Amino acid sequence: QVQLVESGGGLVQPGGSLRLSCATSRTIFSLYNMGWYRQAPGKQREMVASINPAGTTYYADFVKGRFTISRDNARNMVLLQMDSLKPEDAAVYYCKAVLLSSGNVFWGQGTQVTVSS
User: Fold this and answer.
1) Separation of alpha carbons 30 and 94, rounded Å
2) Residue 111 and residue 20 in contact, taking contact as beta carbons nearer than 8 Å
3) In sequence order, what are the residues at sequence separation of 6 or more whose Cβ sits closer than 8 angstroms to the Cβ of residue 18?
4) Strands 18-24 and 4-7
5) CA nearest 98: which of 13, 26, 30, 16?
6) Are 19 and 68 in contact (CB under 8 A)?
7) How far does Cα 60 stand from its chain's mean position?
8) Do residues 27 and 34 touch, judged by C-beta distance below 8 A?
9) Above 70 in pLDDT, residue 26?
10) CA–CA dist 111, 46 (Å, integer)
11) Cα 66 to Cα 40: distance, rounded to the nearest angstrom
C-alpha cells in the first residue's frame, strides 16, 4: 500500500504560479510511474503530466510549455511546477502512482487549485 499526500494548492491570479508536491509513504519510489491528474466540477478526471523512474516526462497538450513535472527519488516526492496559470486550470489536482511490476494504482486525496482574479 502506498500513501500519497498532495500539498501546495491554493488561490492564485491568472498568470501566476503554484508548485504542487506529492509525498509518498515508505516505499521503493523508483519502482513507480508517477503522475498528476486533475478534475474540474462536472468534468472527467484528466491526465496532466507523468514521469517514469528514468525521468521521462509526458504532458497533456493543454499544459505543455507551462507546467513541469519532476521527481526527487531520494525524497520520494513528485513535484508539479505550474506557471502561467489560466482560469481553466482550476481543478482538484491528484497525485497518482502506478507500481510498474503489477500495474496497481494509488491515488492521493487531491489538492484544490483555484485560478481567479
Assistant:
1) 19
2) yes
3) 8, 9, 10, 12, 82, 85, 113
4) antiparallel
5) 30
6) no
7) 12
8) no
9) no
10) 15
11) 18
